[in-house]
Write a structure and sequence with these properties.
By secondary structure, this protein is an all-beta fold. The protein has no helices and 20 strands.
Length: 239
């Protein structure tokens, strides 16, 4: 049973996930290069892009979080210093943002994008491993199969129009039962490893440098035996 979709393996192995070549909307600047693994309620999409060259975008048509897995990507908003992203670095492009995108040869990134008719945050926001962490809520006690972990997060991008949150999160080890995932969630692991359990007993293991997506409502468990840190995107959609 597949409850989490692998978008990228750090060791270069091909993930078992199926991708399809498709644009995310009619004005998608990466239309020719986008490969979508998942689309669902809330007009969210996740997948990967292989891109090189330059693009000038007058108005970015949606919200998109990018995490580079190979090469180098530079995002430049007029009047601001360029943001240069190497491997394992990410950023969020707000809907409506005007920017120049430049990618070195053989650049690849994973993404999580969402449509947004009334954007509330524009610009380019960096996602970084060395975040300004603050304590965050652990999983509910009734879902835990062991001690309560200490969790911290740094949510740096919020767009209320799309119920879209992005940032960095970390936690001490914990073990959680299989339950319906409460959000659409994109994850890029910066440290540690996680074992994701499915109701049929199968387990998907993810390690540092892997990227994956879990749809809202997917039945999934969590088990980590060391410190875990991740870049994340979360979106809550109506049932």
């Amino acid at each position: 049973m597949t409850v989490a979709l692998l978008l990228h393996r750090a060791d270069g192995a091909s993930p078992s996930t199926s991708f399809r070549k498709a644009a995310f909307g009619p004005a998608d600047p990466f239309a020719r290069d986008r490969e979508i693994a998942w689309e669902g309620p809330g007009a969210m999409s996740a997948g990967r892009v292989s891109f090189s060259g330059g693009l000038d975008v007058a108005r970015f048509p949606h919200i998109e979080t990018l995490v580079v897995v190979e090469g180098e990507l530079t995002l430049t908003v007029a009047g601001e210093a360029p943001l240069v992203l190497g491997a394992q670095a990410g950023a969020v492009i707000g809907c409506g943002t005007a920017l120049h995108i430049q990618a070195a040869a053989r650049t690849r990134f994973v993404f999580c994008a969402a449509a947004c008719e009334k954007p509330t945050q524009r610009g380019v926001t960096a996602l970084r491993a060395e975040a300004n962490f603050k304590p965050s809520n652990p999983p509910p006690a009734e879902t835990l199969l062991g001690p309560t972990p200490q969790c911290r997060s740094d949510n740096v991008f919020t767009d209320d129009g799309a119920q879209y949150l992005a940032g960095t999160w970390e936690s001490t080890p914990y073990h959680r039962i299989v339950r319906a995932h409460r959000l659409n969630e994109f994850m890029f692991l910066l440290a540690g490893g996680v074992r994701f359990a499915a109701p049929d007993g199968s387990v998907l293991s993810a390690v540092t440098g892997d990227a994956l997506f879990v749809p809202q409502g997917a039945p999934i468990g969590w088990e980590s035996s060391d410190h875990v840190a991740k870049l994340y995107v979360c979106q809550s959609v109506a049932a």
